[in-house]
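Input sequence (418 aa), recorded before submission:
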Amino acid sequence: MKVLMFGWEFPPHILGGLGTASYGLVKAMAGKPDMNITFVIPKPHGDEDQSFLKIIGASYVPVVWKENDWNYVNERIGWIMNPDEYFWLRNGIKYDFRRIYTNDLGCIEFSGRYPENLLEEISNYEAVASVLAHQLSFDVIHSHDWLTYPAGIFAKQISGKPLVVHVHATEFDRSRGNVNPIVYDIEKRGMDAANHIITVSNLTRNIVIEKYFQDPKKVTTVHNAVEPLPDVDSYVKTPRRDKIVTFLGRITMQKGPEYFVEAAERVLKKNKKVRFVMAGNGDMMLDMINLAAKRRITDRFHFTGFLKGRQVYQMLADSDVYIMPSVSEPFGISPLEAMQVGTPTIISKQSGCSEILTHSIKIDYWDIDGMADAVNAIIRNPAMYKSLHELGREEVNNIRWEDAGEKVIKIYNSLLGK
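Predicted structure, token format:
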């Protein structure tokens, strides 16, 4: 089976959970018999793992015909794309996209991030999708998150192939209900056009059905999982006197960082030998720095900025407690990553991962006192810490991407009448 997937991130260059989830699912699916996956991202860097799939960078797909010779194309992009592929893709240009600014190769230069002109990049991604849909052979189209829904719709219109949209989050999650109507419209059009919708939790499934008015019969929950850590034993706690409690993620409205800060103040009123770490970046970072100062806990509070790769797991391993106080979290992979290295977790009941995790403490995101009490219980009770440490690690090791991949392939087969 040939699958054309549209994504926005792919490791090692990720800005959030979308890239991590896409990678884990695709890698598991690619290991199944007769699976052939082409994964499109706006801007690859050349160091992505392509041992189990083919990556096409939208930045290197021509959408406007430009006369170039083979040697020039090789000089420009030969390090990431064979010039023969460039010329072959150029034959797929069927529409006039000269309204879009392109470079000397007739390609659109995508940022590969979430820039201020994000809506423009999403629209331009459609142009790339049209070229690929005319030239590639595939059985199913799979679009990851709202950024790629328009591309998936266009590819479906051109090819007639079934479209699966994968809802990793909705605008209701990201905005705390203050919905951007433009984003909502893109999401709804994608869901309306989809032959099937995959959601990462039942929480998200209910939002898709109730807020986007989708038929429950075409919406299936496929919970996320976590990639096994081959070197998990190399992540050990650094000896220290104080306990460490960590928040790791985007510092935005959706993630509830202010509840973490408020809970920290309550913990510190009873126990001064605790340090709190907020790891990540986001538009609320300055607000959180100011809030920590207002609560007079800056001497016990640390902001690390964005962490990646080994830094993430080492930070989690060094933590005695990990907290995810998200207001609305479609799934939330970070608690699973914390549990992999044996760190006890506290998660909001308003998270998708709470549907599948047993050995994690679940608190309403707004229950600051409950959150603080849970932290104190874990760091003061060695038996409780040991139980969450051991049982949590055992539990998360059985939450596998292979199982999620099998569910997705089953959905593909049903759409193809197999």
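Checked by second reader. The mean pLDDT is 96.
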